[in-house]
């Protein structure tokens, strides 16, 4: 019998916890009273099973529950569904961690991983400078001009602002070729290999057209928000052989109560992310250092036979934090600095300062 | 200038709130320091604008922010992104409500609405009995036999358990034709028009194949979990003319960071849901009555020119609550009872009892 071991954090009294954990095991599997489970195979192989319960504070427990892998199949959305679909609606439960002692579900994982991303960027070791094209509302020419500046300054990875979808001010089909051309021109001048990652968005039809634009114009990577395009959609693209590294963005991720290390580090990676953006500590997202460290560790930790994903801390960073952050995360990291460079009196100089700071760290 | 008015609930002191609201307006629009916004049009038409701030308790405020509709375009995921993409990651913010004084974004809304669903079910007025096929893990024959019993008993809407995706125990391509045939056979015997709603799941390729199975076999409705298949995916299917009413399931919707009335009642409906399942009060999801009432009201309230969606409260209901719930929600409601019918000593009698209770309410 093949199960995954799922750890939930539950608010309950010592009197309640055993019954609460049993109810949760049922909620996340057969989702009906045990009296309605009349099939012996289902009772034996499918009903969730409470494996252990340990105290985690006053009236807080961690319960480990074994859930049948057969209920997940090979679908990313269905994995999330079985881990937390219904219990996300119950305020006393939080999804903490998952172990797959019997093997991972059949999901793609990163196609490129850290090594593949480094190869594409031409940066074999050390931290990677990443920036964003913003503010939204700018037209195609202004965005392309900004991308040119960033690539000229040596920013290795240049991503769309996650708010740039397909607006009239800069429609995807016009924006992406123009920005890609600007980055290619800068690369020809610098001899670097900066990569542009546009923000894929929309339903199947739109995504198909967008991927075609990227392929037609030699775009080097793509960004997706797994919770906006849908985890299944993202994983299907990767499983079907998407030929560009995927940068995952955490938009909307805060709605549920899933431990960030699990969501960004493990699940987004399982869905096919080669790089994962997450809110850094000390910025404008209030995440603490321990939690951020756990995200980066999870993204790079052994996970079946899957390659590691590159952690990309972001959110209110500035170049003077580069040494501290590389020291904290280690050299396998991309640092994403967007707004603070653009707000500088001399944005070009700020970009070069950022790139210099990154290149002084850990490339030796 | 066309804006939507978005209300956020923010934890802040009276000293902090103005700056906090301004920062939020920026986070959900240009997402960079104002110093980086050098384009006058962007500053004027795109940067979010704090419209008003009112106290909502001790150190809690409601701030109304005007966000440019041009940043949303016609994409459902992008609407969620602009409403709450980044600020969902900030623990002091909650998304409460949206008004569209300048018109709705170009999203499909329900194609069928309450009237279209009623027509399909042959139930012109009064509450509607709904049940679920569970537990997961049962094989196709057992699920079809259960669907037959439910349809024979007069359950009008029979949905897959949301945990039934495409498992080896009951693959979609074999399950759906068998269950549809069972329901059709029961309908032929009873003269009723019970409808089966299978759970669409997966990425674009899988969904395409699943919709084809549904069409080939005359399936009367479909279920989707918008946050699992992706809001954009769901809305694109509806916009492209999906010819079956859509039942939306709240899996992964989490608790409370987006007000449930907004998420289930308004947003899921904008994405194309004809019927919206939500956790009822007094069941196993701890939602309070006032909040549930607001969800049902939002699903049926005027919203541009869109038809209303049918509220479907669910989660630990039992037939003896039918009169109370119809009284509470009014007759435009479907009551979803799954597990408690199946756990009864005589499930068939329990189903008939449920249908009788529903049919005694408000059909006259």
TrEMBL record, chains A, B:
<dbReference type="InterPro" id="IPR036422">
    <property type="entry name" value="RuBisCO_lsu_N_sf"/>
</dbReference>
<protein>
    <submittedName>
        <fullName>Ribulose 1,5-bisphosphate carboxylase</fullName>
    </submittedName>
</protein>
<dbReference type="InterPro" id="IPR000685">
    <property type="entry name" value="RuBisCO_lsu_C"/>
</dbReference>
<dbReference type="GO" id="GO:0000287">
    <property type="term" value="F:magnesium ion binding"/>
</dbReference>
<dbReference type="GO" id="GO:0015977">
    <property type="term" value="P:carbon fixation"/>
</dbReference>
<dbReference type="GO" id="GO:0016984">
    <property type="term" value="F:ribulose-bisphosphate carboxylase activity"/>
</dbReference>
<dbReference type="InterPro" id="IPR033966">
    <property type="entry name" value="RuBisCO"/>
</dbReference>
<dbReference type="InterPro" id="IPR036376">
    <property type="entry name" value="RuBisCO_lsu_C_sf"/>
</dbReference>
<feature type="domain" description="Ribulose bisphosphate carboxylase large subunit C-terminal">
    <location>
        <begin position="113"/>
        <end position="341"/>
    </location>
</feature>
<dbReference type="Pfam" id="PF00016">
    <property type="entry name" value="RuBisCO_large"/>
</dbReference>
